[in-house]
Amino acid sequence: SEPYVIDRLLSLLDELLGMSQLRLDGARVILVGGSMGGSGVWDIAARAPSRFAAAVVCAGEGPKRTPLRLAISRLRSMPMWVFHAQNDVQSPVALTDKVIVRFREAGYDNETLRYTRLIEGPPPRVYPHVKGHAIWLVAFAERSPVWSWLLAQRSRAEPDATAAVDGAVIAA
Question: How far is Cα 13 from Cα 148, in angstroms, rounded to an integer?
Answer without folding.
Answer: 23
